[in-house]
Design brief:
Elements: H1 19-26, H2 45-81, H3 87-117
Helix pairs in contact: 1-2, 2-3
């Protein structure tokens, strides 16, 4: 799994990726069953590999963000108590963390299923395909 660089390495133009954007752009290309569940068996293996990579990187970024937010919350507890920072803002941040945690559950499940269905998949020798990523315009 690719690791997400920390600053200042994250600012390098060659390392900038938008895995959440990529994940959201690719999801509509994932075939679904009549009940609306993802049909991994019918999906293009390149799509599944790309979805798994994006999902894993999103998960890593969000987990790192959770850690950073926790440190910041701990350091602002006295400011919240003193009224310098609104408790409403702390509650809104808590709600965001709950929603992101719920999203992580589903992103992790998506990644696991994509990896399971591509466990024996071998792309061409260079790892390239002639087809562009779904939802991404060719340059």
């Amino acid at each position: 799994m690719e690791t997400f660089p920390v600053s200042p390495a994250a600012a390098s133009l060659s390392l900038i990726r938008r895995p959440l954007r990529d994940l959201l752009r690719q999801l509509p290309s994932l075939p679904v069953t009549a009940s609306g569940e993802p049909n991994y068996a019918e999906a293009d293996p390149n799509l599944l590999v790309n979805l798994a990579e994006s999902a894993e990187l999103v998960s890593q970024i969000v987990h790192g963000g959770f850690s950073a937010i926790g440190v910041l919350q701990a350091s602002t507890a006295q400011q919240i108590e003193g009224g310098e920072v609104s408790a409403t803002h702390a509650a809104a941040l808590g709600r965001l963390l709950v929603e992101l945690g719920e999203m992580l559950l589903h992103v992790h499940g998506l990644s696991i299923e994509c990896r399971r269905y591509t466990a024996d998949y071998v792309p061409d020798c260079l790892g390239h395909t002639d087809q562009p990523l779904p939802g991404v315009r060719a340059i």
